[in-house]
Specification:
membrane, ORMDL, ORML1 protein, transmembrane
Length: 153
């Protein structure tokens, strides 16, 4: 029994992406980022789409795949301390609805960015590289794997 803890989850980080309205808030946040970038006068539409894609994927990489631990005090004896948010999501169960949503959303944004940049080679390389940096860590084969010991501790 945890005295002074208001939640019933052992690790609330595991269920936060399934909470009510989270997906809508996420989509609206990406839309607002794009509108803000479009409102900057010296950014063309292709540049705004590429920046939206790159900023989104950079943020997703940092918050889901680089930052480890949990902001909550958990009674799991420090097991969550060594896991990224993606690894904690849905208790590590693969192919849940929230994992599918957060895997498909950068792909959709990539297709939109590629279409609106008219597949310009420079934008295409930037968008593809950005997409791969967030899709590769999401693969089930890389669950808990630290390549070259990066982010081991």
């Amino acid at each position: 029994m945890n005295v002074g803890v208001a939640h019933s989850e052992v690790n609330p980080n595991t269920r936060v992406m399934n909470s009510r309205g989270m997906w809508l808030t996420y989509a609206l946040g990406v839309g607002m980022l794009h509108i803000v970038l479009l409102s900057i006068p010296f950014f063309s539409v292709p540049v705004a789409w590429t920046l939206t894609n790159v900023i989104h994927n950079l943020g997703m990489y940092v918050f889901l795949h680089a930052v480890k631990g949990t902001p909550f005090e958990t009674p799991d004896q420090g097991r969550a301390r060594l896991l990224t948010h993606w690894e904690q999501l849905d208790y590590g169960v693969q192919f849940t609805s929230s994992r599918k949503f957060f895997t498909i959303s950068p792909i959709i944004l990539y297709f939109l960015a590629s279409f609106y940049t008219k597949y310009d080679p420079t934008h295409f390389i930037l968008n593809t590289t950005s997409l791969l940096t967030v899709l590769i860590p999401k693969l089930p084969q890389l669950h808990g794997v630290r390549i070259f010991g990066i982010n081991k501790y």
